[in-house]
């Protein structure tokens, strides 16, 4: 994991501005109401805990509002809009947490909240957008926060990215050279920027020529299989990997990602240390699934009753699915269809066609699912994804995670290409990138690309963002069938 230096600059700056805003707001309230804070008897430890919680919360919300993406930082208007949205969101969540944790000195002081909001908005607008950006541009001009990068591919896509970085000189990237498997080593792509090696000899080059931070894959005329192979090699060599390719075009269409001008660049690198991330993810899964089963038990009871009285058969539908690394497990759902043993072969045939023909699930769904078999309660729970709730048991048992690629059926797995099977290098999830940003509106290959994006970018904040975005998807039944 290699964190980009410019992001450290802005994160540290944001922490200082949050602390400054808390200090300003507290100082003003003390002047207006000298004995205000004394009446609450707040211990120093509680103070430190609350401030730490506020900082952590703000940085997470700033992250999901794209305040650390370079294209937002460089455009003042978009930067200002993102700042206002992030602060409003942060303040709302802060008040909610203060109420939940009974921090009455926050809840009861409208003055503190008002002055903190004003102070944070003003400091972010004046210092982050103008001063921090100025410092960033100076550091970038002197290559003090720049990553040393190689570009894979010296065709049109590679030259476009290279020209954008070299000519505009505002992006935190210093191009060392190009990697290409077809163009001879030494071929000049730009003045002083040459093809330095092919992929097979990259490890030797890295061992002999010092530290390289990242590789940007910029190539279109390539297969999915080859692209995924290249990504794996570059990751194995310890490079941060970013991709700009038409094969990954679904990611910028569905998600807010970083851009170099008008060129979307998809980050395909771990955001948190792997072992820590997996440990934290498992802890969160256990707590989340346990609490979910407890608090949602009334919903379970109501749905079980409705399913039982409206059609014959078991309440829970048990199915064999493929989990992490191809492991088989029993998958639980609320039954949403009338029992039948006659349509499985036809459905398998249609699903295999869907996997192979590249159409969206939206255009094939009526063939894959026979709507006449879906019960009236089944239509509701399928559209709102309530039929998936029993999978909380799978999560508690460690067979699934709250967030991850969806588990597939055995015959589907058998028809996957090798590169597509990599979506199950992690535990499958109850919800994921495809369910939130794609669902039935993307092709099968695009859904795999979205899952691979998640596999390569797993982090606590991405998981939390996906879960937050899952709520409106469930409530409004977007893309559900």
Give a short synopsis of this structure:
This protein has 481 residues and is of the alpha/beta class.
List the keywords.
flat; 481 residues; 3 domains; two-stranded antiparallel ribbon; Rossmann fold; seven-stranded mixed beta sheet
Note the gap between the termini: 39 Å
Residue-averaged pLDDT: 86
Quickly count the domains.
3
Assembly type of the chains comes to single chain
The order of strands across the largest sheet is: 3-4-2-1-5-6-9
Determine the strand fraction and express it as a percent band.
5-15%
Query: Which spans of ≥5 residues are poorly predicted at pLDDT below 50?
Result: 362-367
Count of DSSP strands: 13
What's the alpha carbon Rg, rounded to whole Å? 26 Å
The total of helices stands at 20
Tell me what you see in this structure:
It contains 20 helices and 13 strands. It is of the alpha/beta class and 481 residues long. The chain has three domains: 5-141, no CATH class; 147-267, NAD(P)-binding Rossmann-like Domain (Rossmann fold); 274-476, no CATH class. The chain has a seven-stranded mixed beta sheet with strand order 3-4-2-1-5-6-9, with helices on both faces. The chain has a two-stranded antiparallel ribbon with strand order 7-8. The chain has a two-stranded antiparallel ribbon with strand order 10-11. β10 and β11 (328-334) form a beta hairpin.
């Amino acid at each position: 994991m290699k964190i980009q230096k410019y992001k450290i600059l802005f994160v540290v700056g944001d922490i200082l501005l949050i602390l400054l805003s808390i200090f300003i707001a507290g100082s003003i309230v003390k002047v207006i109401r000298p004995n205000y804070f004394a009446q609450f008897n707040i211990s120093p430890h509680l103070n430190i805990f609350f401030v730490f919680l506020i900082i952590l919360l703000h940085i997470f919300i700033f992250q999901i509002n794209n305040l650390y993406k370079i294209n937002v930082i460089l455009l003042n208007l978009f930067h200002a809009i993102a700042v206002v949205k992030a602060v409003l969101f942060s303040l709302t969540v802060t008040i909610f947490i203060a109420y939940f944790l009974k921090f009455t000195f926050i809840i009861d002081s409208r003055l503190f909240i008002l002055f903190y909001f004003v102070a944070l908005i003003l400091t972010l607008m004046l210092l982050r957008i103008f001063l921090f950006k100025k410092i960033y541009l100076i550091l970038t001009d002197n290559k003090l926060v720049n990553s040393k990068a190689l570009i894979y591919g010296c065709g049109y896509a590679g030259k476009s990215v290279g020209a954008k970085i070299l000519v505009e000189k505002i992006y935190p990237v210093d191009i060392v050279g190009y990697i290409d498997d077809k163009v001879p080593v030494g071929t000049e792509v730009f003045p002083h920027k040459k093809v330095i090696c092919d992929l097979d000899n990259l490890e030797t080059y890295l061992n002999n020529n010092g530290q390289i931070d990242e590789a940007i894959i910029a190539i279109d005329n390539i297969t999915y299989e080859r692209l995924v192979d290249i990504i794996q090699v570059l990751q194995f060599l310890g490079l941060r990997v970013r991709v700009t390719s038409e094969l990954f075009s679904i990611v910028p269409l569905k998600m807010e990602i970083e851009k170099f001008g008008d060129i979307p660049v998809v980050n395909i690198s771990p955001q948190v240390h792997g072992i820590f991330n997996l440990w934290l993810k498992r802890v969160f899964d256990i707590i989340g699934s346990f609490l979910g089963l407890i608090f949602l038990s009334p919903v379970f009871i109501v749905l079980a009753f409705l399913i039982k009285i409206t059609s014959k058969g078991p309440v829970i539908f048990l199915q064999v699915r493929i989990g992490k690394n191809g492991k088989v497990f029993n998958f639980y759902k609320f039954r949403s269809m009338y029992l039948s043993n006659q349509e499985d072969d036809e459905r398998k045939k249609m699903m295999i066609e869907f996997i192979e023909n590249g159409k969206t699930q939206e255009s094939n769904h009526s063939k894959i699912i026979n709507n006449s078999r879906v019960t009236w309660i089944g239509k509701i729970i399928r559209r709102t994804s309530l039929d998936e709730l029993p999978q909380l048991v799978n999560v508690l048992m460690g067979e699934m995670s709250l967030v991850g690629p969806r588990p597939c059926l055995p015959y589907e797995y058998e028809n996957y290409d090798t590169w597509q099977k990599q979506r199950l290098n992690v535990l499958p999830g109850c919800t994921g990138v495809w369910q939130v940003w794609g669902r039935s509106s993307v092709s099968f290959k695009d859904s795999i690309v979205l899952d691979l994006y998640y596999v390569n970018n797993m982090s606590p904040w991405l998981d939390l963002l996906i879960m937050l975005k899952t709520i409106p998807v469930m409530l409004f039944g977007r893309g559900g069938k």
